[in-house]
Amino acid sequence: MTVPAQPPATPDLLYSQDEEDLRSAVRALLADRADAPTVIAATEADTPYDPRLWEALATGIGAAGLLVPEKLGGQGASHREAAVVLEELGRSVAPAPYLTSSVVATETLLALAGDGGPAAALLVELASGARTAVLAVPFATPPTGVAAALATLDGTVRGIADAAAADVLLVPTAEGLYAVEATAPGAAVEPLVPLDLTRPLATLTLSGATGTLLAVPEASATAVRRGLLAGAGLLASEQLGIAEWCLTETVRYTRERHQFNRPVGSFQALKHRMAQLWLEVVSARAAARNAADALATGSPDAPLAVAVAQAYCSGVAVHAAEECVQLHGGIGMTWEHPAHLYLKRAKADSTAYGSAGSHREAVAELVELPAP
């Protein structure tokens, strides 16, 4: 007897009570340690990252180890919880190496930690928040574009996000994946001037550097692809947070700003623009949550869910930030108002881990269209 195929499980796009509790804790921390004046001041400093904020987020709340199993000192949670953290980081555009270290680097190492060894040992340190790591590939690298930029631990990789603040660099080469200490002889990290000052970029130059081999080439490519897929999928949640803040702040401002003795938000043209933006944000939330749930459950459709989320959410974040700047009028054009931080983060995120165009191409390849 033929057993009928089971229908695919319906994705759970709602937030659990635990996720809401985590959101409240992270939002309260960021409101206290990363409000708008603090973030603006950080972008004008030589060191945008606040070590006390990172310690409170990574260790106090335990966010650094959300994706790490409990046996390795982590929280044993999932991508859904990590997505909530990134939503809140997007809402505050707080400078923190969470996406690059606690998601991309951690997920890459998780693919290699099954048999213990140096990858597992490094995961323990990342989960505790004591150290941070970054995957040494250009920030624009899509999950489908994995290729070793270097033949050996010799050469230059440009545009690495958060490299200047990392303790360990995970360097994919033709020989495999290496863990290189940021302070190792022969390793030089030179900061760049990025569009988004809340997420610094840097150039890594290796010249006769030594590192610990974590994986041979085939396993390295698989691990890097897994890390970039998680990064792209959860970046959609950060973009959702950006868009939500921009919409909420714009609605609040247009209610308070008066012109011709009326709130400007009461003008029909502005109502239509904000209503359209609300529809886009709601759709972005569905796409981002679907990607996070697919990654959390190990769904075979995770690559498609991630590609759809990135193809849509990146544009929504940019549109929301542009509307925020414009509908704030003159004040939205000033450095004192944080709107420019959200626009820069949204624009920078729109090319991170692949552009919307590259993800649309991935959707076309992954979806089996019926024959005409």
TrEMBL record:
Family: Belongs to the acyl-CoA dehydrogenase family.
Protein name: Acyl-CoA dehydrogenase family protein
InterPro entries referenced in this protein's UniProt entry, alphabetically: AcylCo_DH-like_C, AcylCo_DH/oxidase_C, AcylCoA_DH/ox_N, AcylCoA_DH/ox_N_sf, AcylCoA_DH/oxidase_NM_dom_sf
Keywords, in A-Z order: FAD, Flavoprotein, Oxidoreductase
UniProt-recorded Gene Ontology molecular function terms: oxidoreductase activity
Pfam families hit by this protein: Acyl-CoA_dh_1, Acyl-CoA_dh_N
UniProt enzyme class: oxidoreductase
Residue span(s) of domain Acyl-CoA dehydrogenase/oxidase N-terminal: 16-128
Enzyme Commission identifier(s): 1.-.-.-
Record organism: Streptomyces bacillaris
Residues in Acyl-CoA dehydrogenase/oxidase C-terminal domain copies: 225-365
PANTHER family, per the entry: ACYL-COA DEHYDROGENASE, ACYL-COA DEHYDROGENASE FADE28
Cofactor(s) listed: FAD
